[in-house]
Amino acid sequence: MDAGGGADTEDEYIPFDREISEIITFTEGHENSRIKNIAVIAEPYSGEQILINGLLDKLGDGAGHHKYGSIQYECPCPAEICPDKKTVILEGCHYLFSRKIGGFDSLNRFLTEISGDERIYITFWNIFAWDYLSAAENTDSYFQKPVIIEPLKPDMLMDLMKDKSGKSPDYIDDRPVSERNRFTFKKRSIKLPGFEKAIKIPYPGYESSAKETMSEAEAERYAFERIADISGGNYGIAKKLWKKSITDDLFRLSQISSHDSDPDLKYNEAYTLLFILMWGALSAKEIMEMSVSEGESAKILFKLSSVGLISNEGGRYSVEPLKFVQSVEYLKKIRMVW
Length: 338
Hints:
The protein is α/β, with parallel strands linked by helices.
């Protein structure tokens, strides 16, 4: 349990200025409100640890931090967490429930207790668990307004990927000729009846540059446009894609992977993938207790691991970052997430 204060992070640039400002402004203006606690909603890998570090820096000694890293079958007493702090940041609040009989009991007791506490709780939730809990248990009613971590834009990702010295790899357009044609959007000025001034509207264009390669500056910009598109602006996934494309200090455009085809999963396999997505990381025991028998669960985890959808680190299974977008899109297609 962290007593509070700031924390070191490998990134000096904090990309979540809007979210941090919104949270700080809310805490300053709602200390005496009936509903005063905050829910921060994020995808796995989206950089919430950077946001937490930024909040701890801004809030200083008045804030404490605690992380739930596994399913909490017994309701932890919020009053015992950083009891000397005015504001408490609680990470991993989706671990307060489980998909089994009585699995909402700990969560509901927790929500009731923090609602009656005089302190302000800044709670962090996995977005897929949050959507489910809000629909099934009206969890969102305990919070005045959720703060959603927005996808990062290409220029933000570009700043984040530079190390502290400002160095970056050389960007090379080594794509095959067949991949150099692309659609673009440009702005065209038009004059509409009744308007004195011309207005600019976007219109699609098609660039045929099969015989040309991009300059280094163009290649860098294009690289981060592609990374932002493939990752959905998710910081952790974008960073994995960026590192994967660098060899010997050279970033090769040909190495940026696109989306893979949909996996071929049975219902129980997809259901297990959903569990891992909703909690972010689960042990084999936690998965087995919520789904199927131990033997069947082991087979499913082996299948998901063998096709590269999940990985096991320290005994806990999580969705492989470079397969995250593919997994979410697949589960949306079969209506397991929305």
